[in-house]
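Holo prediction. Input below; ligand is iron/sulfur cluster.
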Amino acid sequence: VSGDAASAAPDSASRAAGSRVPVSIARCPSYDLAEVDRALAEAFELAGGLEVSGASVLVKPNMLNAAAPARAITTHPALLSSLVRLLKARGAARIVVGDSAGIPSLESASRKTGLRAAAEEAGASWTELDRPTRVDYPAGKRVRSFEFGAAFAEADLLVSLAKLKTHRLVYFTGAIKNLLGLVPGLGKSAFHLRFPDPVDFGEMLVDLAAAAKPAFSVMDAVLAMEGPGPSAGRPKELGLVMASRDPAALDWSCASLVGYDPWRIPYLADALSRGVWVSRPDQIEILGESLESARPRTFALVPRHGETDFFRRWMPGFFHSAFRDILVPRPFFDEAACALCGACVEICPPKALRIERAGNGGGRILIDRSACIRCYCCDEVCPRNAIRLRRGFPSR
Ligand code: SF4
Ligand code: SF4
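Structure of the complex:
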């Protein structure tokens, strides 16, 4: 993304002492297009808007897998349609919508989620984030050079159009985590292999978002996901559209809204420590609805794993690994629900899964538990909700 995006993204200089970082909250009771248009316009303006006149804009929705919009796994097409039309009305020269699905193919995911049709009907072009292009980030803590799809480098501005969801590995997914989809294909799961510890993985996510420099972020919180997200959770009506020019401030506010202590979400705490975006929660200025008035009465969070910073920081490697083995849930496969589609086998970073075929045409998934790194990529892509995460006896 060219210098326009860099200048549009908040930086430490723009947050001089006393300056505020706006995060907007607008009510949006349904995905009715008129409601969404009104709520998005309100959230966009309150958050300070974005100068897009003459610019080429890449919009990155969350398209985790081939799921219908009602399941709340992916950004809703109505919000994408509304955002494309809003950017066009403000003079964007070109709007490209793209993602890089892991499994299954982008083609089937773009159809089933309704995202491709929404983008094209609203006047944007659709692209797959393929053709890896190197993007350097010398200040990275874990990664200093990424490969993003070529459409990223061809755009002037990047907008993260995220979905508010729980996440079994990193607890919460929003504007920052959504940007992992800039990495083409199975390059995403390679990061899990490289950073099996969720804290390290989270630091990589923050490096990645800082390298991507999103100029603006919008959160689809009309129908969010609670429980065991990001794909096996339950849809939860929040009736909100939220936005900010600062992805860390937006994610922090959303995580807090649903009941998390964001300081206990390692990658959000890390994001605030970087000096790239907002650095203290008291710098965030909530505009529109207040957090208190928008907060749901109940929201099922992902419980913290036994894996805590305490074990990670203070235990020698062997003990840390033994505790992790006992305390961190691992996947079990429900044979009755499994369709043997092979998506989990294909995405598993350490190749710990295989299909054992039976003579009658059936079969089952076998797991090498000692190889499993508990990344839960299998759970994210399973179309049948056939994977249960449970603690178990040590595997080693
Ligand atoms: S089995 Fe699932 S949780 Fe374990 S490494 Fe493979 S994808 Fe990750
Ligand atoms: S567990 Fe899910 S992803 Fe894996 S083969 Fe069965 S249905 Fe497919």
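The pocket of iron/sulfur cluster (ligand 1) is lined by residues 331, 348-350, 352-353, 367, 372-378 (CB under 6 Å). That is the main takeaway for now.
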